[in-house]
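Propose amino acids for all 132 sites.
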């Protein structure tokens, strides 16, 4: 059982809601950024493999999944940019809202492209040869 001080409970202070884990300690920021870089590198590799196999096999589901991975890559990249800008002397307020907006717009663009591809494949299906 966790002690009450170990729980991440919101605290109300002067009409401002804070959380115990809201603030990153001095050495943890760079460690988290390094982990984000590692995750970004691994996901780029997975994206390239998935996209390549999806294009090679004409699989719309693999290409759609690669599109989802691409949106994750954009979100990770924007997160790294936001973390870098947060370390700058001038604090950029509400940057996380801009990052979330850009991520949402990217997801909507990918969903529109997938829908367009699916409709075009229904109208002109790919011809498959069975046997010899």
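Proposal:
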């Amino acid at each position: 059982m966790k002690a009450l001080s170990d729980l991440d409970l919101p605290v109300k202070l002067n009409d401002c809601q804070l959380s115990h884990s809201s603030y990153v300690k001095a050495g943890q920021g760079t460690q988290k950024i390094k982990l984000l870089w590692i995750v970004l590198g691994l996901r780029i590799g997975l994206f390239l493999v998935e996209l390549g196999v999806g294009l090679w096999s004409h699989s719309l589901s693999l290409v759609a999944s690669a599109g989802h991975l691409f949106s994750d890559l954009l979100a990770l990249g924007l997160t790294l940019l936001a973390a870098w800008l947060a370390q700058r002397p001038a604090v950029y307020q509400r940057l996380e809202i801009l990052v979330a907006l850009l991520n949402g717009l990217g997801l909507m663009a990918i969903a529109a492209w997938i829908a367009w591809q699916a409709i075009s494949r229904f109208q002109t299906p790919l011809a498959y040869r069975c046997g010899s």
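The CA atoms of residues 45 and 51 lie 10 Å apart. The first helix runs from residue 28 to 56.
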